[in-house]
Design goal:
225 residues, mainly alpha
Amino acid sequence: MSSMNMTLVVARKEIKNIIKNKGLLVGSVWIGGSFGILFSTQASSLDNAVFSMALLVGVLVGYMFSGQVFMREKRQRVIETLLCTPLNLKSIWFGKVVGATIPAYLISLLTVALVTIVSNIMLHSLLFPSVVILIHILVVVPVFIASAIGLMGFCQFLFGMRENKIIGYLIVLGYFPFIIPSIIGSLVVSWVEVVVYLCVSVLLLALTTYLSRYLSKEKIVTTIE
């Protein structure tokens, strides 16, 4: 089985597990809806609201889903069974990242739709995100979410569960400086910002992917409590 096929096998498993967890899905949709309605009334423009909400909701929901696909499996010792399969560790890690990123991205898209609808209702007009924002949504946002989930997943594999409770929060907080400026209006969204955000996201994901080769199954087993 090729590395890509192994990754897809893990990704499908994680997506199915997330879908089966109704409480997790309801919570993620509630976050998307709440932030979408709240910040669509606070941002300086529709573009800023969509730009920031797509990132914020994606990272917050990605944090929730990463806890499902990484930490919960360690807590329930399911990861031990997965480590005994022929799947290599990098494929397991990347498959979990893909499996958590796809539903988190879909929730993010739902938030974008909600923000657009609410903004149009409030302004009594027909507005749509600009081309720059559409490219941001289609290209940058999924990579941005994947970079956050990948980093959280790497840490959850590397460290014990006590440490990860703190590390997960720190990673989410570390992404906030990229999100807040567009919410409060101090960032004017343009092609420059979209390219910068894409480059930062790609670099973070590439770095974590590179570091994942140094993970070992033995080390992961020792972090299970």
